[in-house]
Amino acid sequence: MTSDDLSGTVVKGGCLCGAVRFEINQPLRPVVVCHCKQCRQTSGYLAGFTVCDPDNIHFLKDDGLTWYHSSEQAKRGFCNKCGSSLFWTETKGGNLGIAAGSLDEPTKLKTAMHIYTEFAGDYYEMTDNLPKRERDRHPDDILE
Question: What are 49's strand-pairing partners?
Fold first, then answer.
């Protein structure tokens, strides 16, 4: 699923300090908010991601980009200068998750759903009416 508002445009983004800057040349999927423990730890709260094909991202500046293998299944990209959480991807490959907060505004994206809600922190409530998935389903399999 893509956001029609972004069709044919270049989306830009980067980290807080500017040591990582990128542009994406494809429409982006709506934002999915993940409540898993790893996303909460790396972001400090919740993590909202869109995705792109890794072939469609071009780094304008990446001297601050570092990848951390957070599990056997995933690795996460962050800026080693300012600490911004920027990306995640499965170690076996596939789409590149992009932190929605790293995108230059206006993004024109909408939040579509919550995933891994079974692991949500005890310090917040999900009070919106968006779909909620407890676990075990990848957002790309749910969003059509």
Answer: 32, 99
Phi, psi of 77 (to 5 degrees): -100, 135
| Nearest CA among 49, 12, 55 for reference residue 33 | 49
CATH architecture entry for 4-123: Beta Complex (2.170)
Which pTM value belongs to this model?
0.87
Phi, psi at residue 5, to the nearest 5°? Answer: -65, -20
Residue 49 scores a pLDDT above 60:
yes
Band of pLDDT at residue 3, cut at 50, 70 and 90: very low
Task: Provide the residue ranges of all domains of the chain, joining segments of one domain with +.
Answer: 4-123
Burial (Cβ within 10 Å: 0-12, 13-18, ≥19) of residue 106: exposed
Distance CA 25, CA 2 (A): 13
N-terminal to C-terminal alpha carbon distance within the chain: 5
Structure confidence by residue, pLDDT tens digits, 68-97? 999 898 999 999 999 999 999 999 999 999
Nearest alpha-carbon partner for 2 in 50, 56, 57: 50
